[in-house]
Amino acid sequence: MHEMSIAMAVVGQVEEAAPGGASVAGRVELQIGELAGVVPDSLAFCFELACAGTVLEGAELVIRSVPARARCGACAGDWDVGMPPELCCPACGRATEVELLSGRELRILTVTWEDALDPDAPAAVSRRTPISEEA
Questions:
Q1: Is the bond leading into 84 cis (omega within 30 degrees of zero)?
Q2: What is the rounded end-to-end Cα distance, in angstroms, of the chain?
Q3: Which residues contact 28 (CB under 8 A, 6 or more apart)?
Q4: How far apart are alpha carbons 103 and 106 in whole angstroms?
Q5: How do the pLDDT tens digits run along the chain, 135 residues long?
Q6: Closest Cα to residue 111, out of 17, 41, 45, 39?
């Protein structure tokens, strides 16, 4: 299950980017494409586990799904790719000049902090105990 490694990477990046004085994240919004290979429910479960003992503990995870879309270079038609992906142009039947326009996204959109921030304060420090690779 790679959702745990994704959740841990999100937690790490949010902690690293925490503004000075921030100690409680209230909400993290992710954008995940239909073709990114991520199961949203599994990611939500893993996110909760990965947040334990960090500034994100108790944070709400919001996942914005991005549909997969493609464009045909031969006829300029575009379409929803769907799952499993249909990469042959429905208008002209060609598959040689297909460009995937969206659906592979996996990014942090926003993080909402619940506490007041002091721009002169040092960056938030992680309270997490590292997970042993032997576990």
A1: yes
A2: 15
A3: 10, 14, 47, 56, 59, 60, 61, 62, 108, 110, 111, 112
A4: 9
A5: 699 999 999 999 999 888 877 778 899 999 999 999 999 999 999 999 999 999 899 999 999 999 999 999 999 999 999 988 999 999 999 988 999 999 999 999 999 988 745 555 444 444 444 444 443
A6: 17
Q: What is the pTM of this model?
A: 0.76
Q: Which residues have C-beta within 8 Å of that of residue 54, sequence separation ≥ 6?
A: 11, 15, 126, 127, 128
Residue 86 β-bridge partners: none
Q: How far is CA 118 from the centre of its chain?
A: 27
> Containing H/E element for 51?
helix 40-51
Contact 70, 101 (CB under 8 A): yes
Q: Residue 10 phi/psi, 5° resolution?
A: -60, -50
Which pair of tokens denotes residue 85? Answer: 């992906």
